[in-house]
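Lab notebook, bench 4. We co-purified these components, and the gel suggests they stay together. Before we commit to crystallization screens, I want a quick structural picture of the whole thing.
Request: model the full complex, all chains together.
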Amino acid sequence: NKPSFESWFKSMKPVSFDGERVVLGAPSPFACEWVTKRYGNLVREVLSQHLSKPVEVSIIHLPPEKHPVLAEPPMEESAEQRDGPVAAALPEPEPVPLEKPVLNPKYTFENFVVGNSNRLAQAGAMSVARAPGQSYNPLFIYGGAGLGKTHLMHAIGHYILQTHPRLRIAYLSGETFAQQYVGALREHRIDAFRQKYRNVDVWLVDDIQFIAGKEHTKEEFFHTFNALYQLGRQVVFASDRPPRELHAMDERLRSRFEAGLIADIAPPEFETRVAILQKRAQIEGIPVPEQVVYHIAYAVEGNVRTLEGVLISIAARASVHGKPITLQLANEVLARHYVDDKEVPVVPTEQAVLQAVCQRFGLTTQDILGAQRRREVLMARQIAMYLLRERARMPLQQIGQIFGKNHSTVLHACNRVKTSIHKDKEITSIITDLNTVLGN
Ligand code: ADP
Ligand code: MG
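Here is the predicted assembly.
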């Protein structure tokens, strides 16, 4: 009814929505508790109805001065309300001075592309961010350089800052920890140093491999971890190698890692590389043709930072010279900075591919593009589709249009050829020959 709406709901603010959980902010701890108890189910039902899917609802205390999303003028609130205990079962300890963590605003969950290579790490990070201290603890993420470890650590930080604005978060690298520890020892400030890190709610330590092998730092690190762990605080580590390979790390620490979740990130597979490039292009507003995206995704494997670097360099070059982003430009940039001259992939045109295939099979273009179902024609057609995709970097849909087929038929054909290579001698030799004709 109207009076309840006026007293409780009018002053509430939306904080976040990740597709599953709606977080709302209420101006006082009491309001949090009251609304959760009295109206929690109603709010959940109404929101689920409006969003056409079941959602969870959390109501958190959102002190106006720490407004995370809305830039409205702060409301008046008494000190008593502000410092009162928070309802809705969120841990909200006494504030201790700690600088806000410095996080890259682009490193959010939203901007993180999920694929098989990073699915577990992303899910673990998300779970920890949703329920700090109550999910996996510690969470240990490892993987090679440029695969998204730091991105995920920052994403956890952003998410918790938004949903639990009063939790104290520390993000630092193993190197920073080591430096600060040594500095504190030298300047006899070890107590302050300990106080600083042993009072955080969320401890995000990146690149912990730096600590391995440093005798005293390692010991201090272990004690800090233990203190936090015993208090049920959330701890997240990232490293370029798995715990078992952190030889110089304390054995006690390594066994503790194994009590939580250890998640690796592998180099992204082709489809994920495409999605990462598309996302990045969208974020930066770079108009890049699909074919060029494919080309980069084929040419650069293994490191997302390099992948994105290539895209940004191409975009910069295009914008400086006032040229559109083309395959040719992409190859110029690749050859100049990223790959050996010899390794810059040649991208044949559609026509070159069709011609080469026809020649090899002794067929005409009409044969291949037509509806004949002779074994040889079928094979030539599938190989042509495969080469248009892999070598000419053409989108599935566009290839489909050439042959009057739909996108999944083309995908199927490409996959068949791909799996036959190395297994079927005839196909292997045909592809090898055609690749030579098309230039490598
Ligand atoms: P690491 O810490 O593992 O060396 P970073 O987290 O610094 O790697 O990632 C390198 C770059 O790649 C960053 O710009 C990051 O945003 C980007 N990146 C990595 N993985 C992804 C992903 N899955 N989706 C979007 N961007 C990613
Ligand atoms: Mg990193």
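Residues 66-96 have pLDDT under 50 and may be disordered. Worth comparing against the SEC data before the next meeting. The two ends are 72 Å apart (CA to CA).
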